[in-house]
Amino acid sequence: QVQLVESGGGLVQTGGSLRLSCAASGRTFSTYAMGWFRQAPGMDLERVAAIDYRGTYFANSVKGRFTISRDNAKNMAYLQMNNLKPEDTGVYYCAVAPPGSDYSQGIWGQGTQVTVSS
């Protein structure tokens, strides 16, 4: 069964750090784009960061604070989040997109909650 499982979320104070992990199983995703999305309360789903063969993408709101990485040998993706702010609060989802397709045609994890207290 192909699936993604996120971990690493939690409660942190403003200025703190968290590292989210995404474990993929069921197949190899080395050629897939991998992305992190978040949904804050009352807000639309937002793509926070992504990584594929072309490089990396970061939303303006997280540039300089978040980094994304992947370990294809382990079928893992990571989101290092530093200098967290209350507006970073939300459910964070890992997703993969097949080559030539977008994330709506990919696979999504169940999400992990990140709460940043002020």
Description:
The chain starts with a strand and ends with a strand. Strands 2, 4, 5, 6, 9, 10 and 11 form a 7-stranded mixed sheet that branches. Strand 5 (46-52) and strand 6 form a beta hairpin. The chain contains no helices and 11 strands. The chain is an all-beta fold. The radius of gyration is 13 Å and the shape is globular. The model has no long low-confidence stretch (mean pLDDT 95).
What is shown here, in short?
With 118 residues, the chain is an all-beta fold. The protein has strands spanning 3-7, 10-13, 18-25, 33-39, 46-52, 55-58, 66-71, 76-81, 90-97, 107-108, 112-117. The protein has no helices and eleven strands.
Tally of helical segments: 0
The multimeric state of the shown protein is: single chain
The major sheet is characterized as: 7 strands, mixed
Cα-to-Cα separation, first versus last residue: 40 Å
Radius of gyration: 13 Å
How many β-strands, per DSSP? Answer: 11
Provide mean pLDDT, rounded: 95
